[in-house]
Amino acid sequence: AMEKSYMSLFLLLIAISCVLAKEAAKKETKETTAKPKLPQTLSRGWGDQLIWTQTYEEALFRSKHSQKPLMIIHHLEDCPHSQALKKVFAEHKDIQKLAEKFILLNLVYETTDKNLAPDGQYVPRILFVDPTLTVRADITGRYSNRLYAYEPSDIALLYSNMQKALKFLKTEL
């Protein structure tokens, strides 16, 4: 008889711990949904955990004052090439980590600064600007007709170009 009561006590404990776990899980999901995510609008899906600037002017200001290079991604929401690149960019752990060292801006419209369209206003295109506010026209992708375009298959090249943008910075400053 002794064994039987132990058994029922044991089962009771299991039942209680299951209920508690469920409550904890419920609480967790409530908190995560209630906790405001970083404004999706600024990242537009390029990296929701990264800090994105709102305007080109703000980005230049922050780059100059933080001495971090600026990375500008021109893209369009309804462009399949932009969408494909965005997906690979957002899912690439190393790129997302390295991106923290940049002032970041993604634009779905063109700025009036002609330096950001050295060879045309196509999307997607990615340009780097150093803290002296010089557009790094020398950091290019692999296409001679669209120097700042990247395809999803060029993600490793984009990563090394990001490293390049950071490296030159150290040697020049």
From TrEMBL:
Localization terms from the record: Endoplasmic reticulum; Secreted
Keyword Endoplasmic reticulum: yes
Listed GO CC annotations: endoplasmic reticulum; extracellular region
A Pfam cross-reference name: Thioredoxin_7
Gene3D superfamilies: Glutaredoxin
GO molecular function: dystroglycan binding
Main localization (coarse): endoplasmic reticulum
InterPro entries in alphabetical order: AGR/TXD, Thioredoxin-like_sf
Stretch forming the signal peptide: 1-21
UniProt entry keywords in alphabetical sequence: Endoplasmic reticulum, Secreted, Signal
Family affiliation: Belongs to the AGR family.
Protein name per UniProt: AGR2 protein
Native source species: Pitta sordida
Species classification: Eukaryota, Metazoa, Chordata, Craniata, Vertebrata
